[in-house]
Amino acid sequence: MSPNEIKNTPLVNEHIKLGASMVPFGGWNMPVQYTNVIEEHLATRNNAGIFDICHMGEFVVSGNNSEEFLQKLVTNDIGKLEIKQACYNCLCYENGTVVDDLFVYKLDNKQYFIVVNASTTEKDFNWFANHKMDNVDLMNISDNIGKIDVQGPFANDTMQKLTDFDLNEIKRFRCEKISVKDIDEQILISRTGYTGEDGFELFFSPRNSVTMWNNLLEAGKEFGIKPCGLGARDTLRIEACYSLYGHEINENLTPIEAGLGFVVKLNKDFIGKEVLQAQKNNGTGKKLVCFEMIDKSIPRENYPILVDNENVGFVSSGTFSPTFKKGLGMAYIKSDLYNVGGEISVLIRGKEYKGVIVERPFYKYKGGK
Amino acid sequence: MKYIGKIPEELKYTKEHEWVKIESAHGVIGITDYAQHALTDIVFVELPQVGKKAGQFKPLCVVESVKSVSDIFAPVSGDVVEVNDNLSNNPEHVNQDPYGIGWIAKIKVFDESEVKNLMNAEEYKKYLEGLEH
Prior knowledge:
heterodimer; A: six-stranded mixed sheet; six-stranded antiparallel barrel; about 35% strand; B: CATH 2.40.50.100
């Protein structure tokens, strides 16, 4: 892809028909909202939402050394994965900062499916290729994969109408290949997501994207399903305190600083381990915290955080929360100030607004089979 | 399929989609139906302080939707004499009724001749139709 080329997903015409506002995102022309962010957000929390995620990148890693190779690259212990199980990971540089965050699915003993961010797909694939071992095959299959997420308390009921496979058999972080109505191939379905709700991520050939999308909208109609744009995807993930690459994690931040120590496993060797081990043992200078506003106001990315008039950090993601009806966000602050219940101020247009550090996450996952 | 919205005859308009209603040397201001629709879900209005000096086409206050922060520009110069405090708890009034209960501030106008720099309803409608979607 040339740097200036904006790509369309196979669903672009569906978005336009639905009246979406389209914006460039990570090199892709994506729907930011169809009606409005709050409606779409609440539909996902209370009913169901579907999201066009065709822009994200997918790799296949296979061969006799695929497990050893992935163990060397990613922070989580994929040796523990059973077949058809998935886990969240960071991909780190030697200095412990983050190349990307990604999901690893173990499809078979010698075959893994990797899902990466859209804007980092090329960088990630180069990183994989530069560290390739013998007896490992790498394939960037991003152009051959369409992806839709269906999320929310009625995601399961919606999806169940489209398949004879008993979806209750797919537990959280598990995947299956199943047959689905009107689709001429088996799709990969996993009980995962990026909203804090129960639901699925669906992977299939791009040619089936439009059928899958419209069948989901039709099947979910009785449950109040709505198409949701990137706006709602962002507010949902902020409430669930999921990191977004380029915000909570990036090439200057480590998973330990980002509070992702639970996916950094020190019982194995991987790139960046030395630094991350030291950070786990000795702590870090700054730390990601969740906060909500006491004064009526909306925190936004990069707004300064003040304590006793001293600049002690910055907002990494902030929004008005459609669920809690107030401003909230995540911020990096000096670690010694981390204290649930502690007051902070956010500097907004030159004025200080009071907020308070709270437990992570704002919205707890309660779905689940 | 562009949304133009309501454009009341008796108001004057700016290119930044504010309206003003001038009556006995005072101007009530707000944002247009087109603007509230484009912003969608307005969730916060940072009202100007009473006493603030507004300059024509200068930033006066801020409205925020879930995903955006937008300056509101004063259609005319003057002193802010009153603000719509109801918007603190009900920012959605701007979406629901941008020309009525969603008004933002009242300004004591310095110079009524500034109105000539504004558009009337017909001109604003043409202006909207000519805008890139």
